[in-house]
Structures are given as structure tokens and as C-alpha cells.
Specification:
The protein is of the alpha/beta class. Helix content is 27%, strand content 21%. The chain folds into two domains: 4-156 and 341-354, 3-Layer(aba) Sandwich (Rossmann fold), CATH 3.40.50; 157-334, 2-Layer Sandwich (Dihydrodipicolinate Reductase, domain 2). The protein has helices spanning 14-23, 45-49, 61-64, 74-80, 92-104, 136-144, 162-166, 209-220, 264-273, 302-305, 337-354; strands spanning 4-9, 29-36, 68-70, 83-86, 109-111, 151-153, 174-183, 223-224, 229-230, 236-243, 250-258, 291-294, 314-321, 327-333. The mean pLDDT is 97. Bound molecules: NADP nicotinamide-adenine-dinucleotide phosphate.
Length: 361
């Protein structure tokens, strides 16, 4: 396949850096243009990032001399890329304005940002779970007046471990879910070394995260209905989110109540035999298997398991009965890979597979 030329908007940040790593040697995509704020404009990527490279792997040599452009140069963007990944930290209105103006310039946008997760005709995609929601692009193109351009977003990183674990159990009548998430510092764009307050500490508040954790799953599990998604009405989700002194990986303690009786062995079978909606598509970034259940009592752990399947796998463990709910278990996903850049790369692969994303020329 002729490679797609890809731009990254917000290339210098935590998620942008992860995109850089994931796009090295990608079989379908090649890095073509980097953009960031006026602070970075005109610098080489190495100069713009300076000592704020926050990944364990070193910065690839091939990207160090790339010039970083400002996001105001739409003509350059249009000339240089087939589509862009967006990971900018800006105000919500500014992000909507930026991403829609790129889409209106006929450049598709695959975004990590939360700004448009509730725009009715913008698909909120977890590729293994709701790949059919991309059909919303038709209605969105009508609204934007575009032929190629659109915006697709991925959900918040906090939900990426428990939504995959709950999806195979939905038809038992999942009524109520309580979830406590233990979220890594990289989710705030930080490193432990630069956040002394986090050492030996837990912060019981992450702005906006509990609302996202309770509401976004209902859109992901919702029904496509022409120009919007009918939200799922069940389960009711209650979430409590904590920031913990962990570098990468969001862990979730999950408690569930079902309408219909279910044996723990059935739950394990559902997880082991789960075939995701994109299994047959053989997308390059898709993990095999999508879900992995650990028999060991002390797994999954962020330090050892967040990077399973190159950070794209979902790890589950500690399934047991609960005296208040029916069952409880623990699950884990990598927040900057599965929960951010990797999830977006997989979404772009899905869009190519489905024919929504094509070469500009
Ligand atoms: N970290 C995670 O685990 C995670 C997970 C899921 C989603 N997200 C979302 O992804 C986005 C980025 O997060 P992050 O952690 O990577 O943030 P970050 O490390 O603070 O990076 C922010 C990026 O946005 C750029 N930027 C800021 N103002 C800009 C402007 N006016 N115009 C153009 N670019 C601008 C910055 O460029 P300069 O370097 O030039 O300032 C930088 O490249 C956020 O919306 C966040 O909510 C993050």
C-alpha cells in the first residue's frame, strides 16, 4: 500500500511524542509534518522539545531536524498531508475551531482531545467496540460541507480498560457499575520526576474525569441513528478517579451488578473467547488478543503489564464474587498508548480499512 502522509498537531507534547514513536516504521503511515504552539514555531523538533522529552525510549534521530510549524498554516498542511492526528492542549472552543477548520480544508482529523466528544455527528471510536459509528461521518460531512474532511475522536483514557472488559458481558443485563480508577501521572502530561507533590501521595481528584468516566461509555455502547448516536441507557456508572504515583498505565477496580444470573466461569469464558468487531480486519496496531486475563492474584500491575501487546492490550485480573455487587475485578490499560496515541493510530487504520480515509492525491 502507498503510505499515507501524516501530520501531528501538538507534536511536542506528551501524546504528540508518543505519536512520533508509534509512527516510526508504521507500515501504512509516514510522518510528514509537525505542528505545535507559537512557542515552538520555526524551531527544529529537538529544539522545541528541549529537555521535555518524556518517553522511556529515546527521541528518534529521523525526527530531530523536522521543523515545527504553527497551526495557522493551513495551506502548508493541505499540501503536505493526507490526514492529521491532533493532541493539543488548548481551550475547548479553540480546539473545535482549529479541528473544524482543518476538516473544512478537506483534511481528516483523528483527535485525542475531548472538545468534540459530544458533538452529535462526530464519531467517538474504540475500534474493537463500535467501529460502525464511523458512519456518522456522512452526516458530519453534510454539516461541514466537505467531501474528504471530517473529525473523528477517541474516548477518554480512563475508560479504556473497563469498557473493553465490560463489553463481552453486556447481554447478561449489566445494570450497575462502580469503578475506581488509579491513573498515572503521564495522563496529566507529567513525569514523576517533575512532580514532587506526587511522591508518596495520592490525589483524590482529576478535573472532569469522573463525569467523562461515567458518561462516555454510554455513547460508545450507543446505537448509530443517522446523524447521532442514541445513548445506551444501561449500565448506570458511578466513578471515582485518583491520581497515583505511577508513570504509565491506568488501573481500574470495577464492581458490577447484572440483571440475569451469571457464573464467574462464564465471565472468564466471555473474556477468553471475545472476538472483537475488527478481528478479521488485521489492522497493524490491533492487539491479539484484545483482552488478557491474569490468573495470578497480584496482576495486572502498571509497571509490568501496561505495555502488554505494545501498549494496546487490555489486562484483567482478580475476578471474584462481591457481597454488595455481584462481582468485582481489576483491569488495566496503557494511558498514552491505548488511551491516547495508539488508540488514535488504530482508529486511523480502521478509517483506512473502511474507506473513509483515502489519499488526498
Ligand atoms: N496524556 C494523556 O495520557 C492523554 C490521554 C488522552 C488524551 N489526552 C489529551 O491529549 C491532548 C494533549 O495532551 P498532552 O498530555 O500531550 O498535553 P501536553 O503534553 O501539555 O502537550 C500539549 C501540546 O499542545 C500544543 N499546544 C498548546 N497550545 C497550542 C496552540 N495554541 N496551538 C497549537 N498547539 C498548541 C503544545 O505545543 P508547545 O509544546 O509548542 O507548547 C503541545 O504540543 C489533551 O487534549 C489531553 O486531554 C491526553
Amino acid at each position: 500500500m502507498r503510505k499515507f502522509r501524516v501530520g501531528i498537531i501538538g507534536a511536542t507534547g506528551h501524546v504528540g511524542q508518543r505519536f512520533i514513536l508509534l509512527l516510526q516504521d508504521h507500515p501504512w503511515f509516514e510522518l510528514s509534518l509537525l505542528m505545535a504552539s507559537p512557542r515552538s514555531k520555526g524551531k527544529t523538533y529537538l529544539e522545541a522539545v528541549g529537555d521535555a522529552w518524556r518517553q522511556d525510549e529515546p527521541m528518534p534521530e529521523s525526527v530531530k531536524d523536522f521543523i515545527v510549524y504553527g497551526t495557522d498554516d493551513l495551506a502548508l498542511l493541505k499540501d503536505s498531508v493526507d490526514f492529521v492526528f491532533s493532541a493539543v492542549d488548548m481551550k475547548k472552543d479553540a480546539i473545535i475551531q482549529l479541528e473544524e477548520s482543518i476538516a473544512k480544508a478537506e483534511i481528516p482529523v483523528v483527535s485525542n482531545n475531548s472538545a468534540m466528544r459530544w458533538t452529535p455527528d462526530v464519531p467517538l471510536i474504540m475500534p474493537e467496540i463500535n467501529p460502525g459509528h464511523t458512519k456518522l461521518i456522512e452526516a458530519q460531512r453534510k454539516r461541514l460541507g466537505t467531501k474528504r474532511g471530517f473529525v473523528v475522536v477517541k474516548p477518554n483514557c480512563s475508560i479504556q480498560s473497563y469498557v473493553p472488559a465490560l463489553t463481552p458481558l453486556m447481554d447478561y443485563g449489566l445494570e450497575e457499575v462502580f469503578v475506581a480508577t488509579y491513573q498515572a501521572v503521564s495522563g496529566a502530561g507529567r513525569r514523576l520526576a517533575d512532580w514532587p507533590e506526587m511522591h508518596g501521595n495520592v490525589i483524590p481528584f482529576i478535573g472532569g474525569e469522573e463525569e467523562k468516566s461515567e458518561r462516555e461509555p454510554l455513547r460508545v455502547w450507543g446505537e448509530y441513528s443517522g446523524d447521532h448516536i442514541e445513548l445506551a441507557t444501561k449500565p448506570v456508572i458511578s466513578a471515582q478517579c485518583f491520581r497515583v504515583p505511577v508513570e504509565f498505565g491506568h488501573l481500574a477496580a470495577v464492581f458490577v451488578r447484572f440483571k440475569h444470573p451469571i457464573e464467574s466461569n462464564d465471565i472468564l469464558m466471555r473474556w477468553r473467547n471475545y472476538t472483537s468487531a475488527i478481528e478479521d480486519a488485521n489492522l497493524p496496531s490491533a492487539p491479539h488478543p484484545f483482552l488478557h486475563y491474569f490468573e495470578e492474584n497480584d496482576r495486572p500491575q502498571p509497571k509490568y503489564d501496561a505495555s502488554s501487546q505494545r501498549g494496546m492490550g487490555i489486562s484483567i485480573g482478580r475476578l471474584r464474587e462481591d457481597p454488595i455487587f455481584d462481582y468485582k475485578f481489576v483491569c488495566l490499560s496503557h494511558n498514552t498508548v491505548r488511551g491516547a496515541a495508539g488508540g488514535a493510530v488504530l482508529t486511523a487504520e480502521l478509517l483506512v480499512h473502511q474507506g473513509w480515509l483515502t489519499h488526498a492525491r
